[in-house]
Design brief:
- The chain is mainly alpha-helical.
- Helices cover 36% and strands 6% of the residues.
- The protein has a three-stranded antiparallel sheet with strand order 5-7-6.
- Helix 8 crosses helix 19 and helix 9 packs antiparallel against helix 14.
C-alpha cells in the first residue's frame, strides 16, 4: 500500500463554489504546506470540495453502466465483459483500489486537522461532507473487494497500518455507518442549500446513502452470508463482526431513513411526459440547459437527483466518449426487452395486450413507456422501429438500440452536443431508487406490502412509466409476486445506472445463476427475419441461434453469448486485490478463488 502514503496538499480542481452552475479553481497557493493549510474555515471548505472530484465520472462508464451484464446484448473482450464471464484474473494494479485510498488519505488529513482546529468560522458542514465522502469511498471498496484495510488517520511511511491485515467487510461497514451518522448530523437539508450550491451533499443524501448501504449489507448477509469472506488466515478478510441478527435491524432502519427522505426531502419524480411525448425516462438522463430536450427544460427543473456528479458545458464537460459508448455497449438483451410489462400491468406472457414479435414494431406496442424511451433509435428518438429498420448483419447488431444517457439528436446535423462535450449530471442516488429501497426493505422485513405502502413507493415509479398501480388483489388475481415486481422495477428503472445490476445480482445471491445463462438477442423464429436475407445474415453471427422462452413460448433467438463461455461463480462476487499491494504486504491476503 506504499502507493498511498505520500503527503498530498489538498488542491481543488474544478468544483462547486458560490456561483450558480459555476466551477471555480480553488487551488491553494503552492507555498502553503499541508501542516499549516487547515487553519481557517475557508481551507476546510476548499479541502472538502475537492473530494467531489474523487467520485467516479463519465470516464468510468464500464463499471457505472454495468457493461457486460445479463441485460446487455453486446459482446467484446476486456473490462466488465470479462468480469461477467468469470474471466477476471488478479491484476498487477487496480486504479479503483489505489485511487480510493489516495482519496481516503486526503480525507483523513482534513479530519485530523479538524480535531485541532480553533478558528472562528464553523467547519461542521465541511467535516460532515468529508465523513460522507470517506464513507462513499469505503463502500465502493467493500462492494468491489469485500473487506479492506480500514484507515481512519493520515499515515506516514512507518505507520503500522501500512503492513497490517484487511479488516472484514462488517468492520468496514460499521465505520461507514458511523461516518454517515456524523454526516447526517452535520449536513444541511436540501432546502437549506442555496441554488448556487446545488449538487453539494445534503442531510437527505446522507440518509439515502446510509439506506443504500444498510439494504445492501442486510440482503448480502441474508442471501450471500459469509460465503465470500475467506477465513482471514489463508485468504480473504475473514468474518469478524458477522452478525445475522443485524439483518432486520438494518432493514427497519432502511424503512425509516427512506420514509424520512420521501416525506421531508422535497424531491419529486421528474415527470414531464406531457411535454416530452412520454419520453421523460430518456431526457432525464441527458438534461442540460433548455436546448437539451424538446420541452425546453433545464437542470433547475430536476428535483429527482439526490446525489450526483455535477457537470457543466462551460466549466466541466465529460471529456470522454459518452453518447458513443452508451449507443453501443448497453444495447439490451432479450431478457431485458421481455422484462417490460404491458400497459395493463401484466407480464408479456400473461397479457392479451402483447403483440408478439412477428414484425419489428410489434413487441413495442402497449408496453411500459420506458421501453420506448430507452430503446428506440437516438436519431429519431421515440419512433418505434418498423420491419426493415433494424438489420441483423453482425457487428454487434442483435436487434435493438439504446438511447439512455445519449445526448439529444447525437450524431446528426442538429446534435445538441458533439462527442466528449456532453455535460449532463451523473446520478448516483435519485428519488425513484429511494422509493424502491423503501419497498424492498418492507418486503424483506414482512414478506409483503400493504396497498398503501405500494401506493407511496413502487406505484409512483410505475405511474411515470405509464403503468397502472398494483395492489394485493391485483397481484393475487394474476398470480404475481410483489418481491418479483420490486426486483423488476429496480432492473428496469435503474438500467445501465450506478452499477445497479451487478450489485443487485450479487447481494441477492443469484449472480452465478443469472450471469451464467446464455444471452440472447432478437427473436428469429416466426418473425420477419426468418429466411429473409435482406434483413438477416445468419452467417454474420458466430454463435448462431438457440431456442429459449419468450413472451409467446419457446422460440429460436440469436445468441449473443452462449452459457458455455459464461462461468461466473461465487468467487467472482468480489474482485481480486491487485498483486502490487499483496506483494508489498504479506498480511494483505487475496480474495478466495484468485
Amino acid at each position: 500500500m506504499k502507493k498511498v502514503i505520500y503527503k498530498v496538499l489538498p488542491c481543488v480542481m474544478v468544483l462547486f463554489a458560490s456561483c450558480a452552475d459555476e466551477f471555480i479553481d480553488l487551488t491553494p497557493p503552492a507555498s502553503i504546506t499541508d501542516e499549516v493549510y487547515y487553519t481557517e474555515a475557508e481551507h476546510f471548505l476548499t479541502g472538502s470540495n475537492r473530494f467531489y472530484t474523487n467520485l467516479i465520472g463519465w470516464s468510468d462508464q464500464g463499471i457505472y453502466a454495468d457493461h457486460g451484464s445479463d441485460l446487455v446484448g453486446y459482446t467484446e473482450d476486456g473490462g466488465m465483459q470479462e468480469y461477467s464471464r468469470g474471466d477476471t484474473q488478479a491484476p498487477e494494479a487496480d486504479a479503483y483500489y489505489t485511487n480510493a485510498y489516495s482519496a481516503i488519505r486526503d480525507m483523513n488529513l482534513l479530519l485530523a486537522r479538524a480535531e485541532t482546529y480553533d478558528g472562528e468560522g464553523s467547519i461542521e458542514a465541511y467535516v460532515a461532507a468529508t465523513k460522507f465522502h470517506r464513507a462513499w469511498q469505503y463502500f465502493f471498496l467493500v462492494q468491489r473487494f469485500g473487506g479492506v484495510t480500514l484507515v481512519t488517520e493520515p499515515l506516514d511511511v512507518d505507520s503500522e497500518e501500512l503492513y497490517g491485515p484487511r479488516n472484514s467487510r462488517y468492520e468496514v461497514v460499521a465505520q461507514i455507518i458511523a461516518d454517515l451518522d456524523d454526516a447526517i448530523a452535520g449536513l444541511p437539508t436540501e432546502q437549506e442549500i442555496s441554488s448556487s450550491d446545488k449538487g453539494k451533499i445534503s442531510k437527505w443524501a446522507a440518509m439515502a446513502f446510509k439506506a443504500e448501504v444498510l439494504l445492501h449489507e442486510a440482503t448480502w448477509m441474508k442471501y450471500v452470508g459469509d460465503s465470500t469472506d475467506g477465513d482471514g488466515i489463508s485468504s480473504g478478510a475473514g468474518s469478524a463482526g458477522y452478525d445475522t441478527g443485524k439483518i432486520n435491524t438494518y432493514l427497519q432502519q432502511v424503512v425509516t431513513l427512506t420514509k424520512t427522505v420521501m416525506d421531508q426531502g422535497g424531491y419529486e419524480l421528474w415527470n414531464y411526459n406531457d411535454a416530452l411525448d412520454n419520453l421523460s425516462s430518456n431526457f432525464l438522463f441527458n438534461l442540460e440547459d433548455g436546448g437539451s430536450n424538446p420541452g425546453g427544460l433545464d437542470k433547475a427543473s430536476n428535483k429527482e437527483f439526490i446525489f450526483y456528479n455535477k457537470y457543466d458545458f462551460t466549466f466541466r464537460q465529460a471529456g470522454t466518449l459518452v453518447s458513443h459508448v452508451f449507443e453501443g455497449r448497453v444495447k439490451p438483451s432479450r431478457k431485458m426487452m421481455d422484462m417490460f410489462l404491458c400497459d395493463d400491468g401484466l407480464p408479456i406472457n400473461q397479457s392479451l395486450r402483447f403483440r408478439g414479435y412477428a414484425n419489428t414494431q410489434d413487441e413495442f406496442q402497449n408496453r411500459d413507456l420506458r421501453m420506448r424511451a430507452y430503446f428506440t433509435y437516438h436519431k429519431n428518438l421515440g419512433e418505434i422501429p418498423e420491419t426493415g429498420d433494424v438489420l441483423l448483419n453482425g457487428t454487434n447488431n442483435f436487434g435493438y438500440f439504446n438511447s439512455k444517457f445519449m445526448s439529444w439528436n447525437w450524431g446528426t446535423d442538429i446534435a445538441y452536443r458533439a462527442t466528449t462535450t456532453e455535460a449532463y449530471d451523473m446520478p448516483f442516488i435519485r428519488l425513484a431508487e429511494v422509493y424502491l429501497m423503501y419497498a424492498e426493505a418492507l418486503y424483506e422485513l414482512n414478506g409483503s406490502l400493504t396497498d398503501a405502502e405500494m401506493n407511496e413507493s413502487i406505484n409512483l415509479v410505475k405511474a411515470r412509466a405509464g403503468l397502472p398501480p398494483i395492489s394485493n388483489t391485483f397481484l393475487t388475481t394474476h398470480g404475481m409476486d410483489i418481491g418479483t415486481e420490486i426486483r423488476r422495477e429496480r432492473t428496469i428503472e435503474l438500467y445501465a445506472e450506478s452499477a445497479t445490476r451487478f450489485n443487485d445480482l450479487k447481494r441477492w445471491g443469484i449472480a452465478e445463476d443469472e450471469l451464467g445463462e446464455t444471452i440472447y438477442g432478437a427473436v428469429i423464429e416466426g418473425t420477419a427475419y426468418e429466411g429473409n436475407p435482406a434483413l438477416y445474415n445468419p452467417g454474420a453471427y458466430g454463435f448462431g441461434e438457440a431456442t429459449t422462452t419468450t413472451g409467446v413460448g419457446e422460440r429460436r433467438c440469436l445468441i449473443v453469448q452462449p452459457s458455455s463461455i459464461r462461468n461466473f461463480s461465487r468467487d467472482n462476487y468480489l474482485f481480486p486485490i491487485p498483486t502490487s499491494q499483496t506483494g508489498l504486504n504479506d498480511k494483505l491476503l487475496q480474495n478466495p478463488g484468485y
